[in-house]
Design brief:
This protein is α/β, with parallel strands linked by helices and 223 residues long. Helix 2 packs parallel to helix 3 and helix 5 (150-164) runs parallel beside helix 6 (182-188). The chain is 33% helix and 19% strand. The protein contains seven helices and eight strands, in the order βαβαβαβαββαβαβα. Strands 1-8-7-6-5-4-3-2 form an eight-stranded parallel sheet. The longest helix is centred in the last third of the chain and has 17 residues, at 206-222. Bound molecules: D-xylitol-5-phosphate (DX5). D-xylitol-5-phosphate binds at residues 7, 9-10, 32, 34, 65, 138, 140-145, 174-177, 194-198.
Length: 223
């Protein structure tokens, strides 16, 4: 089962509620909210207030991707705002093990994101505390960037690593995911697709873009 999570970063902010409702109507599995602090990534976006506002519209997973330094400072705020999943970057905290423990203590799903230059070995000691691992297929900060193909092999090696250990951890991918790249990452083992500009754009409706993404992976899922 492939889960599609539109990234609201690419939505039209003048009508964010409407755009989220369009995603809901397209039967997606959740939304990823990209929180950026202008330090960990060169962009600034949303805070807990936007997550709280979106909570009332989102029936699926409200997945908060914290692209901020020292994310431990805000875990409780985003959990209180209604986040179902709290995703931190391995590169953004000194105490990843403790942060993942804190996320679980808050009752949220725990997730770790790793940037394209970050090797899989950094995850070795926290797999028992992790529900989702997100492999970034762009350098985070902005939507509409080109997909980094070298990450497909990383996704494949990650799936092998998790399967060898018998771990039921989902692999998410984020960045440049569209009907061309989605089959590549699904065949490598990804089951959560985060997509921004391929869903929110002027070329087609949200429903049409979600359908195109789903169709593109239907064959890949079949193997
Ligand atoms: C990285 C963000 C992504 C981004 C994806 O900058 O974390 O979620 O919004 O946008 P696309 O799908 O357009 O690459």
């Amino acid at each position: 089962m492939i889960a599609i999570e539109p990234s609201v970063l690419s939505a039209d902010f003048t009508r964010l509620g409407e755009q989220v409702r369009e995603g809901e109507a397209a039967r997606i599995e959740g939304f990823q909210v990209d929180v950026m602090d202008g330090r960990f990534v060169p962009n600034i976006t949303f805070g807990p207030g936007v997550v709280r506002a979106l909570r009332s519209l989102v029936s699926g997973i409200l997945d908060v991707h914290l692209m901020i330094v020292e994310p431990e400072r805000y875990l409780a705020d985003f959990a209180d705002a209604g986040a179902d999943r709290l995703m931190v970057h391995q590169e953004a905290t000194v105490h990843l093990h403790r942060v993942l423990q804190q996320i679980r203590e808050l009752g949220a799903e725990s997730a770790v994101a790793i940037n394209p230059s970050t090797p899989l070995c950094v995850l070795e000691q926290v797999l028992d505390l992790t529900d989702v691992i997100q492999v970034m297929t762009v350098n985070p900060g902005f939507g509409g960037q080109p997909f980094i193909h070298s990450q497909v092999d990383k996704i494949r090696r990650l799936r092998e690593m998790l399967d060898e250990r018998g771990l039921d951890i989902s692999i998410a991918v984020d960045g440049g995911i569209d009907p061309t790249t989605a089959p590549l990452v699904v065949q490598a083992g990804a089951t959560i697709l985060v997509a921004g500009s391929s869903i929110y754009n002027s070329k087609a409706s949200v429903a049409e873009n979600v359908a195109a993404l789903r169709e593109s992976v239907a064959r890949a899922e079949g193997g």
